[in-house]
Specification:
By secondary structure, the chain is of the alpha+beta class. It folds into 4 domains: 4-224, Histidine kinase-like ATPase, C-terminal domain (Heat Shock Protein 90); 231-374, Ribosomal Protein S5, domain 2 (2-Layer Sandwich); 400-480, 3-Layer(aba) Sandwich (Rossmann fold); 487-622, Four Helix Bundle (Hemerythrin (Met), subunit A) (Up-down Bundle). Helix content is 38%, strand content 20%. The strands form 4 sheets. A 9-stranded mixed β-sheet has the order 1-6-5-4-7-3-2-8-9, covered by helices on one side. A hairpin with a 5-residue loop joins strand 10 and strand 11. The protein is elongated, with a radius of gyration of 33 Å. It binds adenosine-5'-diphosphate. Adenosine-5'-diphosphate binds at residues 33, 37-38, 41, 79, 81-84, 92-93, 122-126, 172.
Length: 622
C-alpha cells in the first residue's frame, strides 16, 4: 500500500482557516490539547486493558513525552496510549465529529475570538496548526502488528496524506514542524511553564529530557514536568483556592474562574470524593440534545469515563468536575451505571450538596446568584418539571422581577409569600417577553391599584414550569392572563353583575362563537375590556411561541371581560337599555372585541370591517 492523498471535509478547512487566522492569543494552548489527547489515549488503553491485558504489550509504564528540537524547529509529543488504526486516523483527523461546530465557527467569524471555545467543541488537535505549518502523526494501535502503523501528514492546505509506517511501539507520536514565529515552543523553560500552567493535573507523567550542568558536564535526565496530584482526593483544608482555579481551568478548558467550587468526600455506605464546579458562563450548547454532561468518573484514580451523566440529574448538567468512587467495579459499564445503587447514592449526595450551595449563594451573595441564575436558571428550572420530590425546593431557588421590585432587581417565591396581603390567597404572575412590555399590560391595572404584587415571568418556559408546579407552600399560582380573578367586594360585584346582565348577554349574542363567554372583569382599571383565556387554556405566550415554531395550536375562543367601572361600558349599557336592537350597540361590541385582540398582539379577523366600523363611529362623534 502506498501513500494516499485525501481531502479534508469542508468544515475542517473552514475551521483550520479560522484557527490559523483568527486565534492569535493563547496560542500555547495547542500543547494542552495535545497532552490532553495523549492522556485520553492512555486512559482508553488502560480501560480496555482491564479486560484484555495483551494490549499493554508487556509495558504499563504510561507516559507522555515532549521532545523539543531547536535545530529542526520541531516539537514532538509522544504517548504510549491506545493509538489509531488507519481508518480511525482518517476519521479522527479529517472530519469534525462534534455538533455545535457550526456555531463555534460563526462565533469565531463574529470576531468573538475566544480561545475557551476551542475545548468546548473538541477541535483540539487542529489547534496544532496555530503554531505549526506542517504536522506529522505516526500512530500504531495497541495490540496490533508493527505493520499496522500509519503516518499521517498535512500542511493544512485542504488535504492530508496517509501511508503505512512500521512502528514497533504502540501509541502516537505527533511531530509539529513549527512556524518561524513558533520557535519559542522548542525552549525547555517555555514548555515547562506551559505544562505547569495547563496540564499539571494530568494523571500520567508528562516528561522531557532536560540538561543539567554537573561539574562542567552536560547531564541529560528525563524530568517529570507535572505534579499529577489528584486534588479531589485531598482534604479541603489542604487545597489552596488557586489550585482549585487551575484545576477547574484544566478540566473545563475555561479561561474564567468557576463561580463556585463544591468539594466533599462521602464515607460510610458509599465512599467517594467529588470535586465539582459551577462555571461562571454557560456553554453555548448546553440546551442541545447532544450536550455531553456529567463530571468525569474515576474509580480509585482510574478514569472510566470523561462525562458520566448518570452521576447528576440532567437539570444540574452545568456542573463540571470529577467524581472518584471507591466502591464501583473498575470495569463498570453504562448499563451497570444506569441501575446501580452506589451511583444513585452519589447522585443524591451531589444533588443535595449543590442545592445547599445554591441556597447559600442566594442568601449571602445575591448578585453572584443572579449571575448564576441568568446563566443556568433555565436549566435548573427543568428540575421543577422533572424532579417530583424536589420541585418545591428547586422552585425556592427561582428569582424573578415583580411589580414590587425596582427595575432589574429580583425577588423570589418565599419573599413574595412574606409580602402577601392577608386576604390574598394566590400567587399572581404574568408571562411575557420583558418587564417593560408587561408593565404596560391592561391585565395588571386593577392588581396594581390594589397593591397586589404580580411576578413577571419572562422566560419562555416559565408558564410550563409554573403550571406544572401549580402551587408553592400551599399557595396556588394564578396567571393573571387566564381565568377569573376575584378582586372586588362580593356585594358590589353582585350588584354590577345584575346591572350589566342584559348587556353581557347582548354582547355575547353579537360576537357569537368568536368568544366563549362575555363577563364582567375585576382585573381592569383604565381599559374597557380585555380577552382572557380559560384556566386550563394554553398560555398566550406559549401559544405565540408554538405558532412561531410552525406548530398547530388548537383554536379556542376566549372570554371577553368588560370593565364595569369604565365610562364606555356604562354608556353602552344606557344605550342598550334605550335601544336594545339598535346598530350602535352591535357596532361597539364588535369594536371592543377587535380592540381587545389588538391589545393581545393579534389582528382583527376582518380588518376592512374593523376600519369601516371605526370610521363610522368616529364620523358620528366628531
Ligand atoms: P477531541 O479530543 O475533542 O475528540 P481532537 O480533534 O483533539 O478532538 O481529536 C480528535 C480525535 O483524534 C480524538 O477523539 C481521538 O480519537 C483522536 N486522537 C487525537 N490524538 C490522539 C492520540 N494521541 N492518540 C489516539 N487518538 C488520538
Amino acid at each position: 500500500m502506498s501513500q494516499e492523498r485525501m481531502e479534508f471535509k469542508t468544515e475542517v478547512n473552514k475551521l483550520l482557516e479560522l484557527m490559523i487566522h483568527s486565534l492569535y492569543s493563547h496560542k500555547e494552548i495547542f500543547l494542552r490539547e495535545l497532552i490532553s489527547n495523549a492522556s485520553d489515549a492512555i486512559d482508553k488503553l488502560r480501560f480496555h486493558a482491564l479486560t484484555n491485558d495483551e494490549l499493554l504489550e508487556g509495558s504499563a509504564d504510561y507516559k507522555i513525552k515532549l521532545i523539543p528540537d531547536k535545530e529542526k524547529n520541531t516539537l514532538t509529543v509522544v504517548d504510549n496510549g491506545i493509538g489509531m488504526t488507519k481508518d480511525e486516523a482518517v476519521k479522527a483527523l479529517g472530519t469534525i465529529a462534534h455538533s455545535g461546530t457550526k456555531e463555534f465557527m460563526q462565533m469565531l467569524e463574529n470576531k468573538e475570538k475566544s480561545p475557551e471555545l476551542i475545548g468546548q467543541f473538541g477541535v483540539g488537535f487542529y489547534s496544532s496548526f496555530m503554531v505549526a505549518d506542517r504536522v506529522t502523526v505516526y500512530s500504531r494501535k495497541a495490540g496490533e502488528d508493527a505493520s499496522v502503523g500509519i503516518k499521517w501528514e498535512s500542511t493544512a492546505d485542504g488535504s492530508f496524506t496517509i501511508e503505512p509506517y512500521e512502528m514497533n511501539e504502540r501509541g502516537t507520536r505527533i511531530v509539529l514542524h513549527l512556524k518561524e514565529e513558533g520557535n519559542e515552543y522548542t525552549d525547555q523553560w517555555e514548555i515547562k511553564d506551559i505544562v505547569k500552567k495547563y496540564s499539571d493535573y494530568i494523571s500520567y507523567p508528562v516528561v522531557m529530557d532536560t540538561t543539567k550542568k554537573e561539574e562542567d558536564k552536560d547531564i541529560v535526565e528525563e524530568e517529570t514536568l507535572n505534579s499529577m496530584k489528584a486534588i479531589w482526593l485531598k482534604d479541603r483544608s489542604e487545597v489552596q483556592p488557586d489550585e482549585y482555579n487551575q484545576f477547574y481551568r484544566h478540566i473545563s478548558h475555561d479561561f474564567k474562574d468557576a463561580a463556585s467550587t463544591i468539594h466533599f468526600k462521602a464515607e460510610g455506605t458509599s465512599e467517594f470524593a467529588a470535586l465539582l464546579f459551577i462555571p461562571s458562563k454557560a456553554p453555548m450548547n448546553i440546551l442541545y440534545a447532544d450536550f455531553k454532561s456529567g463530571p468525569a468518573l474515576y474509580v480509585r484514580r482510574v478514569q472510566i469515563m470523561e462525562h458520566c451523566g448518570e452521576l447528576i440529574p440532567s437539570w444540574l448538567r452545568f456542573l463540571v468536575g470529577v467524581v472518584d468512587s471507591s466502591d464501583l467495579p473498575l470495569n463498570v459499564s453504562r448499563e451497570i451505571l444506569q441501575n446501580n445503587r452506589q451511583v444513585e447514592t452519589i447522585k443524591n449526595n451531589i444533588t443535595k450538596k449543590v442545592l445547599e450551595t445554591l441556597v447559600k449563594m442566594k442568601t449571602s451573595e445575591p448578585e453572584k446568584y443572579l449571575e448564576f441564575f441568568n446563566e443556568f436558571g433555565r436549566v435548573l428550572k427543568e428540575g421543577i418539571h422533572f424532579d417530583f420530590k424536589r420541585k418545591e425546593e428547586i422552585a425556592s431557588l427561582m428569582v424573578m422581577q415583580s411589580t414590587a421590585t425596582d427595575n432589574g432587581k429580583v425577588t423570589c417565591l418565599d419573599d413574595y409569600l412574606a409580602r402577601m396581603k392577608t386576604e390574598q390567597d394566590e400567587i399572581y404572575y404574568i408571562t411575557g417577553k420583558s418587564r417593560a412590555e408587561l408593565e404596560k399590560s391592561p391585565y395588571l391595572e386593577a392588581l396594581k391599584e390594589k397593591e397586589l404584587e404580580v411576578l413577571f415571568m419572562t422566560d419562555d418556559v416559565d408558564d410550563i414550569i409554573v403550571s406544572g408546579l401549580m402551587e408553592y407552600k400551599g399557595k396556588k399560582f394564578k396567571s393573571i392572563l387566564k381565568g377569573d380573578i376575584s378582586l372586588g367586594k362580593e356585594d358590589e360585584k353582585k350588584e354590577a353583575k345584575e346591572h350589566f346582565a342584559k348587556l353581557t348577554e347582548k354582547v355575547k349574542a353579537v360576537l357569537g362563537d368568536s368568544v366563549s363567554e362575555v363577563r364582567l372583569s375585576s382585573r381592569l382599571k383604565n381599559s374597557p375590556c380585555v380577552l382572557v383565556s380559560g384556566d386550563s387554556d394554553m398560555d398566550p405566550n406559549l401559544e405565540a411561541m408554538l405558532k412561531q415554531m410552525g406548530q398547530e395550536v388548537p383554536k379556542r375562543s376566549k372570554i371577553l371581560e368588560l370593565n364595569p367601572g369604565h365610562a364606555l361600558i356604562e354608556k353602552l349599557n344606557a344605550e342598550f337599555e334605550n335601544n336594545p336592537d339598535g346598530e350602535k350597540v352591535a357596532d361597539i361590541s364588535e369594536l371592543l372585541y377587535d380592540q381587545a385582540l389588538i391589545l393581545e398582539g393579534n389582528m382583527p379577523s376582518d380588518t376592512a370591517k374593523f376600519a369601516s366600523l371605526l370610521t363610522k363611529i368616529m364620523t358620528e362623534t366628531v
